[in-house]
Amino acid sequence: MSNRLLAQAVAYGCTHIAFEDLTHIRDSMPSKRKFHQWMHAKLVQYVEYKAAEIGIEVEYVDPRNTSKRCCECGHTSDSNRTERAFFECEKCGTTANADYNAAKNIGLRLVRRELHDSRRTGDSQLALKSGTVKPNRGFVSYSEQEVEVESTDKHHLNRSERASASCK
């Protein structure tokens, strides 16, 4: 997993990799979830080590609301998470895999922080498999040839489909 992550970072010319800063969360978790945190910590450790060898910086961002915030419009609500693995913004209707939405928020948080850092110059952007996100210009899709389509096996009904299904 760490090798794939770093290979993608190199392929897209990334200078940074962002992770949520989960150091203080571990203490308040049940033991079952602590194992998953341990695995996450190991992944981060491998990425840090390998990234340093190839000149990529690993940064940490505040994890607060990354899974509840819409990566498109910024609306934050518990209601945006209709299912564990599914995200649907109640304000703008954006739908996505919940982890993908959170990953965009994590990356955007780092890009925005770097943008506001007076020591930084240049044009910050967030590279994703499907395109790039620039703080002032939004999301720009890659061409059809560049896109590696991500999907889930399970079809998710959007809010209006669920409402009409429950009325029948």
From TrEMBL:
GO terms for molecular function: DNA binding. Residues 151-162 have a biased composition (Basic and acidic residues). Keywords: DNA-binding. Pfam families: Cas12f1-like_TNB. Residues 40-106 form the Cas12f1-like TNB domain. It comes from the Archaea. Residues 143-168 are annotated as: Disordered. This is Cas12f1-like TNB domain-containing protein.
